[in-house]
Specification:
Elements (H helix, E strand, L loop, with lengths): L2 E5 L5 E6 L2 H27 L7 H26 L5 H5 L2 E5 L7 H9 L12 H9 L6 H6 L1 E5 L31 H15 L3 H15 L7 H18 L2
Antiparallel strand pairs: 1-2, 2-4, 3-4
Length: 243
């Protein structure tokens, strides 16, 4: 897999994996099955109305209820499912911007528009395949034009894998009120980088801890991993326990 380095708000790069062509094709296949089932069901429904609606009415109904929703399916789902369609969600892949941000609507519209020439049907499949094979980030033409990439993501796990810590039944005393200047998104990045550090990348913990101390003007002698755990615990205390 191609590795993508995405900078965080702490100027520490996180590494992600570009989605493989096979993953993207299977996601497309799942979405195609869903759209096909939708079309079949509503064709039967619309067809049953031919005795009460004239041909012009059926044509308009067919356009509004079947054609437009099927065409807009990937665009609407990616807009309202954080860069995912049902197929992408099933394959654990997602569309993001080049710096790891949620794509804007204009970016999603641009990559959707290019689907006109990139549908993997017959010889058209050669366009996105060649583009992804030649691109170091495995971007199809629409991704290049929109400034987006498709990455593999880790499925959401249990609550232990989030930033949440239940401190309500303890006598926990926070140490760093400065962390309230950070956001939930910052905390999630810190948690992700701490997990990576605990998995063996001790240098990452040092870099992240140093950067947080610089940004928040914190002086402490706590070991780097202990400091990051304390930051997460303090944030939970201030945002969930203390009212």
């Amino acid at each position: 897999m191609s590795t993508i380095k995405i900078p965080t708000s702490f100027n520490i790069d996180l590494e992600f994996q570009a989605a493989e062509i096979g993953q993207r094709f299977l996601a497309w296949l799942i979405d195609t099955v869903i759209r096909t089932v939708f079309v079949v069901v509503f064709v039967l429904i619309v067809g049953s109305m031919k005795d009460i609606i004239n041909n012009d009415g059926l044509s308009v109904l067919f356009l509004l209820v079947i054609v437009i929703p099927v065409m807009l399916y990937p665009l609407l789902f990616e807009m309202y499912m954080n860069g995912q369609t049902p197929g992408k969600k099933a394959m654990d892949i997602r569309v993001v911007g080049l710096i790891g941000n949620t794509p804007s609507r204009s970016q999603l519209f641009t990559r959707w528009f290019f689907r006109i020439i990139e549908q993997p049907i017959f010889f058209w499949a050669i366009i996105p395949v060649i583009s992804m094979l030649r691109s170091p980030l495995k971007q199809r033409v629409g991704d290049i034009a929109a400034g987006t990439i498709v990455i593999s993501i880790k499925p959401k796990g249990s609550i232990e894998e989030t930033i949440f810590r239940d401190l309500s039944m303890t006598d926990y005393k926070p140490q760093f009120p400065e962390i309230l200047r950070l956001s939930d998104r910052d905390m999630n990045k810190i948690k992700e980088m701490l997990d990576r550090a605990l998995s063996g990348d001790k240098g990452l913990a040092e870099r992240v801890a140093t950067r947080i101390k610089e940004v928040l003007k914190i002086n402490t002698t706590l070991p780097d991993t202990v400091f990051l755990e304390t930051v997460l615990n303090d944030y939970n205390f201030y945002t969930t326990v203390e009212k």
